[in-house]
Amino acid sequence: MATFEGRFTEAASLRIGVVVARFNDLVTAKLLSGCLDCLSRHGIDTSEASSQLDVAWVPGSFEIPLVAQRLAASDQYQVVITLGAVIRGDTPHFDVVVAEVSKGVAAVSRASGVPVIFGVLTTDTMQQALERAGIKSNLGWSYGMQALEMGSLMKALP
Ligand code: INI
Question: Catalytic residue positions?
Fold first, then answer.
């Protein structure tokens, strides 16, 4: 019997692409900083000069799948992380954006074989989003951990 698990100690061999939405950037910039903090503390070079990490900004979460697809298909990254915040507020737009980004990210991951981490918050209010982006905890950190785990796991699998 073989058991496969990702480790959190293989940062040196990973290149990571991050796609982050500007819409609700009060939230997404916080997710990005939590995510980069996690990656940096696990050994990824997150400096401006880094050859291990690239960040692509998109207008909103709806645009995330297209750019994630481009990064995943480039053969440059072992993992892609997506970061966004879709807040229900009063707009029916919410359901459209959430459906497209969630299905889109899953499709990109399966089609490319590159793990694409779904770091898009979907909340009813800005307060709830902020709570998940640093006021209480920062889920950006968790998305960083999930990226490290999946990058490592995919290397270990046959
Ligand atoms: N984009 C988001 O990332 N979050 C939202 O809450 C949001 N809302 O509610 O409208 C949102 N809309 C913009 C969308 O992602 C596209 O950028 C836009 O429709 C242009 O294609």
Answer: 93
CB 32 within 8 A of CB 55: yes
User: What is the domain count for the chain?
Assistant: 1
Query: Is residue 40 packed enough to be buried (19+ CB in 10 Å), middle (13-18) or exposed (0-12)?
Result: middle
Residue 79 falls inside a structural domain: yes
In this predicted model, what pLDDT tens digit does every residue of 31-45 receive, in sequence order?
999 999 999 999 999
pTM, 2 dp: 0.97
Sheet (strand 116-123) strand order: 53-58, 16-21, 79-87, 116-123
Question: Could you tell me the residue range of the domain that residue 122 belongs to?
Answer: 19-152
Span 49-81, pLDDT tens digits: 999 999 999 999 999 999 999 999 999 999 999
Ligand 1 centre to CA of 61 (Å) is 6
Q: Which residue among 31, 63, 96, 97 is best mutated to probe the pocket of ligand 1, counting the most ligand atoms within 8 A of its Cβ?
A: 97
